[in-house]
Amino acid sequence: MLHQLIYASVRNSNCSDAEIKKILDSSNRNNGKKDITGVLLYSPTKFLQVLEGDKDLIVALYENIKKDDRHKNVIMISLKTISERHFPSWQMGSKELNSDNFSFITHMSDKERKDFESLFSGNDVGESIQLIRKLLK
Ligand SMILES: Cc1cc2nc3c(=O)[nH]c(=O)nc-3n(C[C@H](O)[C@H](O)[C@H](O)COP(=O)(O)O)c2cc1C
To answer: 109 CA to middle of ligand 1, Å?
Structure first.
């Protein structure tokens, strides 16, 4: 059954922009073979990733990603069944957020910004996906 896993983590200082490119290259090379899609958001100090696909495959990928020393403090925010993919067109879409201070996002309400900061700190805010989709606009 189709599942979705969301996690947040802390980007290590060894994770340069060149390393981010390598992560996205690996994702695009590997995820398609497993029919995994999703999105990776990254700021100077944090990651937020959504993985969608077969449950066993996304959990196995998550366990593997957790061991990567380009990040730490990996926290699973949610793992649930979904009836359809939220990010079907991307093996791994990505978006760079230039700052950890999300006040620069002007098309969000104060509540949405707060929820977003909370999400990046590893808390499930209920409407996580709607929030992430807003950020991708
Ligand atoms: C934040 C983060 C997200 C990652 N996401 C993926 C991913 O979606 N798919 C993937 O194959 N590797 C991902 N990786 C990289 C893996 O940890 C690992 O380096 C990679 O799968 C090795 O595959 P390769 O030898 O084909 O490059 C991620 C790493 C980090 C730090």
So the answer is: 33
